[in-house]
Amino acid sequence: EVLLVESGGDSVQPGGSLRLSCAASGFAFDGHDMTWVRQTPEKGLEWVSTTTWNHATYYAESLKGRFTISRDNAKNTLYLQMSSLKPEDTAVYYCYAAILSRNYWGQGTQVTVFS
Question: 76, 78, 84, 102: which could form a disulfide with 29 (CB 3.0–4.6 Å)?
Fold first, then answer.
């Protein structure tokens, strides 16, 4: 069974930092691209960042320089380091993987950036 479990969400002040984690199991983590997306009622679902199986990384243009995606294949864990957080970063953050033509999502972790 494929499982993706996010953690690390919290409430922080603007300018703060957080590191999100996504623990993966049930599939060959080191052979799959992994993605972070976020969701708000106002904007809907927004792509944040992707790391490929061979560690290439891609970011939404508006987030470059503030967010860093990484993966630890030995721990089957995906990370998202977020810095200089802004109120508009408030969202539920999900990790996502496409495996054998099926889409898998975690349950999400809430990030709130409050003034």
Answer: 76
Distance in angstroms (rounded) separating the CA atoms of residues 45 and 83:
21
The model's pLDDT over 51-106, given as tens digits with 9 standing for 90+, comes to 999 999 999 999 999 999 999 999 999 999 999 999 999 999 999 999 998 999 99
In contact, 6 and 21? CB cutoff 8 Å:
yes
What is the C-alpha to C-alpha distance for residues 3 and 54, in angstroms, rounded to an integer? 21
CB-CB contact of 92 with 8 (8 Å): no
Whether residue 113 contacts residue 16, with contact meaning beta carbons closer than 8 Å, is answered with: yes
Please give the sequence-ordered ranges of beta strands (E in DSSP) within the chain, or none if there are none: 3-7, 11-12, 18-25, 34-40, 44-51, 57-59, 67-72, 77-82, 91-99, 102-105, 109-113
Output the six-digit token pair for 67: 């967010």
Cα 48 to Cα 18: distance, rounded to the nearest angstrom: 15
